[in-house]
Amino acid sequence: MVMEPIARAAAPESEAALRHPPEVLAEVASGRLEQLDAETLLRWAIERFHPRLVLSCSFGAPEGLVILDMMHRIEPASRVFLLDTGRLPQATHDLVDRVRDRYGVEVEVVFPDPRAVQEMVRRHGQNLFYESVAKRQLCCRIRKVEPMKRYFAEAGIDAWVAGLRREQNVTRRDAAKVEVDETHGGLIKVNPLADWTHDRVWAYVREHNVPVNRLHREGYPSVGCEPCSRAVQPGEDIRSGRWWWENPETRECGIHVGEEKDGSGI
Question: Which of 28, 95, 201, 202 shows the smallest number of beta carbons within 10 Å?
Fold first, then answer.
């Protein structure tokens, strides 16, 4: 008796395979894009994805503004969004208005779910993030991670650009210039400044008169939420001004590092 072969179900396609043409994923997988400089890489991304490409800019670090300037020179209608957590300093809001005036861009401001924020604050207090890493991650998840996921799902996005640099922190030293972001449904993530140094970023700011957050002049290398940011001394690690009460290995909000199973936001 001849046995019929057992039919096996085809493996489900990844979200990236369902979202992007095979040739785009092949380009990403080839490693060729890793050799491109920042401007050339941004041209590639804009040609492939605009207007379904968006820059994530915190308006609290020079990297995002450098990329915004580059993208605007390539495509003035390039998109940019900001996560407004409800705890940003006034200096950041002022910079958003300066950027709107300078570049004529519409900044897509994204807010957290007010009900989720209200429940968290009622249960844990306004300054829960100082009490433990888990509570700080909870705050980041509700104010940043979940709003970003909702925005990506609703805003018609296939790819996004971030200002990650490998030298910023131990959690970012392996960042690729282009990668498939499975955490956000298979979007293509572009990190054009991954191999840039701190000095190179500031040289670009000075050369092109890029507007940046005024708190940098007061010693803040990175400006996030007001209670989670501080000035640092010359020579200190540039990420030491963010969540300084934690170990370097946990200083991420969950936007650039996949969430753990329990949803910590890291």
Answer: 202
- In order, the DSSP letters of 81-108 are EEE--S---HHHHHHHHHHHHHH---EE
Q: Has 253 been annotated as catalytic? A: yes
Q: Give dist(CA 110, CA 167) in Å, integer.
A: 28
Is the dihedral angle over the CA atoms 213, 108, 200, 181 positive or is it negative?
A: positive
**Checking DSSP bridges between strand 79-83 and strand 159-161, what pairing results, if any?**
unpaired
Instruction: For residue range 224-249, list pLDDT tens digits in order.
Output: 999 999 999 887 777 678 777 676 55
> Which residue type, as a one-letter code, is found at position 189?
K
Q: DSSP of 110-154, one letter per residue?
A: E---HHHHHHHHHHH-TTGGGT-HHHHHHHHIIIIIHHHHHHHHH
Q: What is the pTM of this model?
A: 0.86
Q: 220: which DSSP letter?
A: -
Cα distance between residue 37 and residue 65, in whole Å:
17
Over residues 27-41, the pLDDT tens digits come to 999 999 999 999 999
The Cα–Cα gap between 43 and 233 comes to: 37
Phi, psi torsion values for 180, nearest 5 degrees: -85, 120
Q: Which listed residue (139, 140, 228, 253) is catalytic?
A: 253
Report residue 26 as tokens: 């092949």
Amino acid making up residue 7: A
Nearest to 224 by CA among 203, 251, 199, 200: 251
